[in-house]
């Protein structure tokens, strides 16, 4: 991945390039921002530029031996840590077990989310995590001498998924790494990264992709009309992975909308039998689907609440979602929005912690029934 492959983010790309040219290279950066805006490809492009043997003013050369190895993500001084799942046959729970799949996945996709990665490695209902043993592997790798590059670079994707023991073991290494060693931590939820890790990194916030750049990228990659491109860019709100989902994963989006419609319909009717049936259906979906559904529901609550203010440019709904909103948007208002968001956010955390899905969804559906009014 090169800087030129990253959509928009012109200012931050310029900043990173100029910092290298001026010789300012912090030993640890925390690159953070929303999902799907290009943080990981940005970290890889920055890493490539740092080790390029003949860097240009705006990008890596793409011709030197270092760039050739980066093309395959197989440079001996480039290392990765990322969420994974434990396989029964494995004694060591380290990312190297998944490195071939990781390289294949990154070659196929530039913009993606955790759910797509876990689906790619067939994680099923398992929660992705960076296990405690990974810290020992990171320390071992980084204590080796630089093999051939200017810098030895460790890219940690989603440090918020690190096991707490892994976090603690890495503190000293991140604070005082060996010479010519750089940590690039790429986070989508900075609040979940432990403070002692955050305090040891220079933070660099990545804004959502600019609207005009999003539209250009959508039209370049997909055969959409100008009107549809503007609509997708508006709803995606700066996330290209979200734009891809809107364009390519209509079946998944429709499934989530159907589940949401059934839940709202059951709660609105106050039919206890129907409420139990909906909760049962939700509890039987996979763990990742359940998490996606709860995130989708929180988004719908937000959009339906904002829709009441009649400011169209602040509403991010597609046609089907807007049609459903004509029936339910009025039920989401200032009297219940905060409680609804709190309850469904709690439900998401409980699902992440492997709580009993049937109890969680029945409780949420019953609370929803009490909170919305006809």
Number of helices: 17
Q: Span from first to last CA?
A: 52 Å
Structural class assignment? alpha/beta
Spatial arrangement of strands, main beta sheet? 2-3-4-1-5
Mean pLDDT: 89
Report the sheet with the most strands, covering strand number, pairing sense and barrel closure. 5 strands, parallel
Q: Uncertain runs with pLDDT below 50, 5 residues or more?
A: none
Number of strands: 5
Shape: globular
* Strand residue content: 5-15%
Using only C-alpha atoms, the radius of gyration works out to 22 Å
Which sequence of SSEs, written as H and E, runs from N to C? HEHHEHHHEHEHEHHHHHHHHH
Helix fraction bin? 40-55%
Write the layout of secondary structure elements.
Blueprint: H1 10-21, E1 28-33, H2 39-51, H3 65-71, E2 78-81, H4 99-108, H5 114-120, H6 132-142, E3 152-157, H7 164-175, E4 181-187, H8 195-198, E5 202-206, H9 211-221, H10 226-236, H11 240-248, H12 250-269, H13 272-283, H14 287-307, H15 319-328, H16 337-352, H17 357-371
Parallel strand pairs: 1-4, 1-5, 2-3, 3-4
Helix pairs in contact: 1-2, 6-7, 9-10, 10-11, 11-12, 12-13, 12-14, 12-17, 13-17, 14-16, 16-17
């Amino acid at each position: 991945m090169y800087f030129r492959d990253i959509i928009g983010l012109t200012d931050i790309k310029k900043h990173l390039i100029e910092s290298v040219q001026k010789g300012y290279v912090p030993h640890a950066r925390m690159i953070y921002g929303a999902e799907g805006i290009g943080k990981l490809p940005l970290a890889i492009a920055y890493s490539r530029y740092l080790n390029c043997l003949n860097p240009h003013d705006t990008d890596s050369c793409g011709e030197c031996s270092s760039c050739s190895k980066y093309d395959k993500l197989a440079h001996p001084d480039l290392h990765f840590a990322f969420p994974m799942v434990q396989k029964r046959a494995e004694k060591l729970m380290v990312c190297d077990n998944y490195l071939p799949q990781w390289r294949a996945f990154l070659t196929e996709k530039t913009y993606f989310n955790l759910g797509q990665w876990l689906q790619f490695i067939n994680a099923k209902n398992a929660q992705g995590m960076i296990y405690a043993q990974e810290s020992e592997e990171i320390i071992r790798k980084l204590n080796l001498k630089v093999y051939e590059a200017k810098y030895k670079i460790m890219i940690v994707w989603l440090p918020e998924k690190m096991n707490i023991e892994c976090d603690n073991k890495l503190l000293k290494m991140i604070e005082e790494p060996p010479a010519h060693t750089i940590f690039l931590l790429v986070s989508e939820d900075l609040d979940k990264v432990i403070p002692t890790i955050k305090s040891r990194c220079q933070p660099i916030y990545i804004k959502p992709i600019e609207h005009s750049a999003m539209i250009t990228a959508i039209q370049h990659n997909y055969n959409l009309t100008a009107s549809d491109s503007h609509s997708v860019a508006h709803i995606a709100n700066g996330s290209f992975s979200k734009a891809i989902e809107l364009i390519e994963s209509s079946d998944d989006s429709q499934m989530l909308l159907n589940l949401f419609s059934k839940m709202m319909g059951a709660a609105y009717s106050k039919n206890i039998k129907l409420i139990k049936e909906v909760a049962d259906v939700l509890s039987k979906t996979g763990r990742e689907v359940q998490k996606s559904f709860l995130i989708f529901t929180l988004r719908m609550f937000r959009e339906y609440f904002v829709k009441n203010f009649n400011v169209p440019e602040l509403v991010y709904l597609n046609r089907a979602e807007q049609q459903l909103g004509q029936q339910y948007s009025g039920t989401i208002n200032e009297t219940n929005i905060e409680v609804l968001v709190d309850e469904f956010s709690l439900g998401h955390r409980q699902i992440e912690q492997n709580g009993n899905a049937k109890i969680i969804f029945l409780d949420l559906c019953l609370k929803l029934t009490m909170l919305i009014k006809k």
